[in-house]
Design brief:
The chain is built from four helices and nine strands. The protein is an alpha+beta fold. The chain has one domain.
Length: about 160
């Protein structure tokens, strides 16, 4: 029998136990698709490596990249996160009284295959950049649990 492949990638939901003591906050990731992995690899397409011939004894090599690891982590989460119930608390003054409302921190829209994706990209970046680093670190760690090929630098030119 020939290999059968589901169009929708494998999906896993994780509880955010480090950031939320109640364990009610969840985040869902899919395994990265080949197309998205290629887009991520393109982040490292612009690299310059130079060797200092005038100082051969030191063997100095300089490498310039246009991306750094925190940006790579953000992009990996962007390409693989399909759900997250973190909420933003907004205070509104109505009739002289302050009330709090909540709304989703990240918005999602189905792609052409029906997989929810953070949307739009700039809103995702703004939301990600405004979170405490402990939360973005946990989100990335959970992303890695679903995408184990990125553990220990496998498939990672950044050399985690």
């Amino acid at each position: 029998m020939a290999l059968s492949v589901k169009l929708k990638p494998v999906e896993e939901t994780h509880f955010m136990v480090e950031s939320d003591a109640s364990h009610e906050t969840t985040v869902t990731f899919v395994q990265v698709t080949t197309g998205d992995a290629q887009k991520l690899d393109d982040l490292f397409g612009e690299q310059t490596q130079t060797y200092d011939r005038n100082n051969v004894s030191s063997g100095s090599v300089s490498i310039k990249r246009r991306w750094n690891f925190p940006q790579l982590a953000r992009e990996r989460v962007f390409y693989t996160m399909t759900g997250c119930n973190i909420e933003r608390i907004i205070e509104k003054v109505v009739g002289g009284e302050t009330t709090q409302i909540t709304e989703p921190y990240f918005n999602f829209k189905a792609d052409k295959n029906g997989t929810p994706r953070p949307s739009p990209r700039q809103d995702f970046y703004s939301a990600w950049d405004s979170l405490p680093q402990s939360i973005t670190d946990e989100l990335y760690d959970l992303c890695i649990q679903t995408n184990i090929q990125w553990i220990n630098g496998q498939d990672d030119e950044a050399g985690e």
